[in-house]
Amino acid sequence: MSVLVNKDSKVIVQGFTGSEGTFHAGQMIEYGTNVVGGVTPGKGGQTHLDKPVFNTVEDAVQQTGANVSIIFVPPAFAADAIMEAADAGIEVIIAITEGIPVKDMVYAKEYIKNKDVTLIGPNCPGVITPDEAKVGIMPGFVFKKGRIGLVSKSGTLTYEAADQLAKAGLGISTAIGIGGDPIIGTPTKDAVQLLMEDPETDAIVMIGEIGGNYEAMAANYIKETGNKKPVVGFIAGQTAPPGRRMGHAGAIIGGADDTAEAKMRIMAECGIHVVSSPADIGETMAKVING
Questions:
Q1: pLDDT at residue 212 in the model
Q2: Would the annotation count 96 as a binding residue?
Q3: What is the CATH number of domain 138-290?
Q4: Binding residues for CoA, per the UniProt record (predicted)?
Q5: How far apart, in whole angstroms, are the C-alpha atoms of residue 239 and residue 202?
Q6: What's residue 239's pLDDT?
Q7: What is the full DSSP assignment across 1-58?
Q8: Which end of the chain has fewer surrounding CB within 10 Å, N or C?
């Protein structure tokens, strides 16, 4: 049992024939992900990367049985793409697109709220279950199979943590890049909960950043559930000045609890093993689980 994606996932690519969709779909196929087709309105009936192209997600689902979609649609149309996938019965939607207008995401998140769907992103690197499925833009070779779950707001730090874990002789069950926008489909706590409930995950790495309260909510959840799996945590942006956006649209300190220092304190109080540098993630996890 893995989380969100695995070797049985049937993946379609929305924005399949565009440059981003083409490049990353090719990488996903090369990795071994079961990409069953893609969607580009007006190009239905064609083939691309030896896979069928459909005009709509509904057509793709009906003809391929797709249950996972990855979105490489331009920002102005990406929220519509999310809602279209949800309407078609896709179970896991991974929105890579950066720069979707906040009002569009507010509407899309509300629209899919009562549907049986998990949205990851937007503005995220995707999800990978090593050696089974890579549904995203991460470099697959960095991720080694193992039993450590990984949840991260940062794409680059996802790769760094995976590399650290591999160097420590550990591997990843599933890595979830949740995205750094103010409005995302799956906040830190929900992603951590998926891994807490996964029997093939023994411990979790949680990487956050300044801005918002996602990490505090996740930390409180971990404490409330009795710290049943060890968690190593890191917060990016420890030197960021208040009021200035740092990288991600959601990475801005708005109050005293938004700072890296405050988040690290809350996490430590909730029993999380907090590291001050991403270079210490692998070594710390190895110590935690090996005693």
A1: 86
A2: yes
A3: 3.40.50.261
A4: 17-20, 43, 96-98
A5: 32
A6: 77
A7: --SS--TT--EEEETTTSHHHHHHHHHHHHHT--EEEEE-TT-TT-EETTEEEESSHH
A8: C
Count of positions (residues) in the chain:
291
Q: Is 17 annotated as a binding residue?
A: yes
Beta carbons within 10 angstroms of residue 291's beta carbon: 4
Domains 11-120 and 138-290 share a fold: yes
Give the start-to-end residue ranges of the domains of the chain. 11-120, 138-290
By annotation, the residues acting in catalysis are: 248
Q: Is 277 annotated as a binding residue?
A: no
> What is the CATH class of 11-120?
alpha beta
253 is in an annotated binding site: no
Cβ-proximal residues to 187 (8 Å cutoff; 6+ apart), any chain: 178, 214, 217, 218
Q: Give the separation between CA 200 and CA 174, rounded to whole angstroms.
A: 9
Give the model confidence (pLDDT) of 126-182 as tens digits. 999 999 999 999 999 999 999 999 999 998 999 999 999 999 999 999 999 999 898
